[in-house]
Design a protein that fits this description.
about 450 residues, 2 domains, Aminopeptidase i, Domain 2, about 25% strand, Aminopeptidase, about 30% helix
Length: about 450
């Protein structure tokens, strides 16, 4: 129901308790899943505990079966097989696992002025100045020359050190503060401070770097050359927190788009014997254009659907895959822009979502003249409205700011290329792409209810 009332005006006491209980599970997920690899691990762990099996472990499948497949540990599809044949279409909710961050370069380490630092390349759209002077953690994997896989996670436990990027003191920042904000901190200036103690008892160049390398080899088992075959991501350290005296908001890194990842995951895990096969898609690389083997421009969705059809029918008929996808209905699950009272001029208040007013549906996203968007058909928007209203879901509409202000895209356009109906649908957030994004507890709960209703729809 789209209305001026907030989620909190609609939820009774028991429902509020459920919303906060759901938010607690969501915060724990945010803490465990700060990278796409960690998110895949967390999802598979929960899926297995709820009876899901890898498609590589089964020889056939029937309605009610729960299956998943991981694409290189960085993207994932899960499905609960429905009663109706797959070629009649599926109910698909697609979100993305990646979030803006800093990636260490392949040759990152250097020493200067008695400090060891790491060079980075920022990933996705960030405001570079927001990433200075905040505690950072390192997550990722290093593949050694021997082929061993070393998992790295430093900075999340209280006993761990953290890392940071320095910034100028105001007294010496006159030239910096006279620059445009996008130029005040350069990409090549986002160098992470890694160490400061020199190696003792040896006459070597770059003693601080040498001491750091010795620690990495002794504690973690890899060398400087091994960093060439590594994926190390610097992300904000520390847990997600409740925000506000009323604890009505959740603050933390990576909620775009793990808010949709978690809500769609939980909706799918709760699904039993749906009419149409329910499929949750978790893609990678959305923040950099959805390219690559694990991005939405790859064939991961059609490959997974082809595997399902083969397990159900024993046939690998290509036309069956095309029919299944063409007849499917999908929600592109991504964060919407919330109206910010501190920056009211960049959004059309009448058409912008607000925190606490439910899940947001966006007929289109894109930039300026509706570039980089799929623009959902009015008929499908009406059908989703009906599903949400019948389920008692509080919802609102949204868009990506004023027409000529800027904008952004989602994976909707890449799902729509199969001919399926697609609509953007997700919670509104404040401070998107910052190290500390904000979501409403009520909106997160309504997003879960919306996705549950969509997966369970039978029309």
């Amino acid at each position: 129901m789209e209305q001026e009332k907030t989620v909190w005006d609609v939820l009774d006491g028991k429902q509020r308790d459920k919303a906060f209980e759901f938010a607690d599970g969501y915060r724990q997920f945010l803490n465990r899943a700060k990278t796409e690899r960690l998110a895949v691990e967390a999802i598979i762990s929960q899926a297995k505990s709820r009876g899901f099996h890898s498609i590589e472990e089964v020889k056939d499948a029937k309605p009610g079966d729960k299956l998943y497949y991981s694409f290189g540990g960085k993207a994932l599809c899960l499905a609960v097989l429905g009663k109706k044949p797959l070629d009649l279409g599926l109910r698909i909710i697609g979100s993305h696992l990646d979030s803006p961050r800093l990636d260490l370069k392949q040759r990152p380490l250097y020493e200067e002025a008695g400090l060891a630092l790491g060079k980075t390349h920022y990933y996705g759209g960030i405001k570079k100045y927001q990433w200075t002077t905040v505690p950072l953690a390192l997550h990722g994997v290093v593949i050694t020359e021997a082929g061993d896989r070393v998992k790295v996670e430093i900075g999340e436990n209280e006993a761990d050190p953290v890392f940071t990027i320095t910034d100028l003191l105001p007294h010496l920042a006159k030239e910096q503060m006279d620059k445009k904000i996008r130029e005040a901190v350069k990409g090549e200036g986002l160098n992470i401070l890694l160490g400061s103690i020199p190696l003792a008892g040896q006459e070597v160049k770059e003693r601080v770097k040498a001491n750091l390398l010795q620690a990495l080899e002794s504690r973690h088992g890899f060398t400087e050359e091994d960093l060439v075959s590594a994926e190390l991501e610097a992300v904000p350290a520390g847990p997600a927190r409740m925000v506000g005296l009323d604890r009505g908001l959740i603050g933390g890194y990576g909620q775009d788009d793990r808010a949709c990842v978690y809500t769609s995951l939980m909706a799918l895990l709760d699904m039993e014997n749906p009419d149409f096969t329910a499929l949750a898609l978790f893609s990678d690389k959305e923040e950099t254009g959805s390219d690559g083997a694990t991005g939405m421009k790859s064939n991961l969705l059609e490959d997974f659907v082809a595997e399902l059809i083969y397990l159900v029918s024993g046939s690998s008929d290509g036309i069956g895959v095309r029919r299944a996808l063409r007849r499917s209905q999908a929600l592109s699950a991504d964060a919407a822009v919330a109206f910010d009272p501190n920056y009211p001029d960049v959004t059309d208040k009448q058409n912008t979502a607000c925190l606490g007013k439910g899940v947001a549906i966006m007929k289109y996203s894109g930039i300026a003249g509706k570039y980089d968007t799929s623009d959902a058909n009015a008929e499908f928007v009406g059908e989703v409205r009906s599903i949400l209203n019948q389920a008692g879901v509080v919802w609102q509409t949204g868009e990506m700011g004023k027409v000529d202000q800027g904008g952004g895209g989602t994976i909707a356009q890449f799902m729509a290329r199969y001919g399926m109906e697609v609509l953007d649908c997700g919670p509104a957030l404040l401070s998107i792409h910052s190290p500390f994004e904000l979501a409403s507890v009520g909106d997160i709960f309504m997003t879960y209810l919306a996705y549950s209703a969509f997966f369970g729809s039978s029309s």
